Amino acid sequence: KLASIIINNRFGKIQVKAHQYCLAHLIRNVRGQAEHPSATCEDTERLGELYDTLQSLFIDKHAAEQGRLSESTWRQYGYRKWQDCQEMVEELATVGSTKKLRRFCRRLLKDFAHLRIYLRNMAFPMTNNPAEEALRNLVIVRKLCFGSRSLYGKRWREAVNSSIETLRRQGQSVLDFLSEAIRARRM
Known about the structure:
By secondary structure, the protein is mainly alpha-helical. Helix content is 71%, strand content 9%. The chain is elongated and about 70 Å long.
């Protein structure tokens, strides 16, 4: 996924494009290609090897996060596995049995450099689960009450929901924050 981030500072807005792809989505897409009815047995076998290699990246990342694997060892294993994945995808891009599979692999090869962000920085998660969890409640509320029709209502909801989610993740009281914000505004 491509995330576009806008940073506000005292000099104005700076638009930054941060490329980070969710490894879980990549694994899901590889599995979908393997399960496609037009995939041959050879393609399914190659995609299965790719799937297993990507899954092992998850296992190594969790071992590194838990301290069972050093960061340098994680990177060493990770770069080797990414190289293996890239070679598998390059092979499928040329010898894949269907046009859809070859196109999928060519698109994946273009984005391979962005997938290595996980190896450069241990702090990046390999999934976007926290972001999707943060949005889940907002989507449910929007579906139940059909959102807001005014621009003011939309902006208010954006600000309040963003604040509530941030405070919840930081373990702070939402009520204390809102009362302090109202008090500061009145003063």
